[in-house]
């Protein structure tokens, strides 16, 4: 049985064009970076005409690109998707033990997120098993400008970047305390960037978030501590939690190659 074969009972569920397209992408490797249409047809034991529409679709989607009249290589979309996945996976693997330890020290829930367009995408949670806790499932997407994690992620952008990102989004469609205009958002993120952390209250809970930096010093992810207001209210409690959060973020960033001294 080859890598693309499935048990006979499953053959009715196959999508032949999709199967063939993925098989074409699998033909490329470190030793064979460029393949002609005839090479692909020969490997798959089909005619070039049978591959033409599939190859053209892969080109249009950016998964293949032409390097000659009838020669192709893997396109930028493969690279983008692959590195995005690996980067997210690396951050989760590095952050997981640190966030679990932070949860155990504070008895508060911790979350890790990255930015996708204007959303904060939750990649990991260290859930605190207490009666009143904040528990946002992995895979949840929330608007960046309305959450502590999201606002930290937006600090990676300057005013021009924020303007470009939000030029087609109506901020006044979102309820307060989220900013209602682009200038208000830009001013808020500028203060967040200078402070290095964000506190946000909603629905009887409080979240404190800060950024994770990569080897270039860029904010690539954010982590938070979140819990009921009764636990997190007060300057002493917040200072204690903020110190623990900063220590956790520094440990994760260091493992990603960030050096504060550099």
TrEMBL record:
One of its GO terms (molecular function) is DNA binding. Keywords: DNA-binding, Transcription, Transcription regulation. Residues 15-76 form the HTH iclR-type domain. Residues 77-258 form the IclR-ED domain. SMART domains: HTH_ICLR. GO terms for biological process: negative regulation of DNA-templated transcription. InterPro entries: GAF-like_dom_sf, HTH_MetabolicPath_Reg, Tscrpt_reg_IclR_C, Tscrpt_reg_IclR_N, WH-like_DNA-bd_sf, WH_DNA-bd_sf. It comes from the Bacteria. This is Transcriptional regulator. It comes from Metapseudomonas furukawaii.
